[in-house]
Amino acid sequence: MNLKNRQTVLLVGNDATLSYLLGRFVEQSQCSLVVVPVLTSAQEIVEVNLKAIVFLSRQQLEEAQNLLSELTSPETLIIVCSAVGDETRARELGADHCLFHPITYDSFQNVLEVASAPKGD
Asked: How far apart, in Å, do the first and last CA atoms of the chain sit?
């Protein structure tokens, strides 16, 4: 597969252990990975063939609200890593799916498969 045509998963957060784990999952899914500590620029979203944005915590999703509302399309999959108790708030903030701790490869893969299915309708 041509690396330029690979879809990209953008990880937002600064948890090294969780970034490493999800990075391995992304690699197994044959997607490209971009990791940023904080989502601060439109370029981070616009310049990649985006499959999903994964926030490593609900707080990081909250901090990115203004930027996300301006830049993401309805097709952009927003995922947040959270505890079960944070799901309602994460969904209010625009998360399409939550990855609940402890995160497994199967749960990650199931959420990514949703990215391939049409949204809405």
From this structure: 31
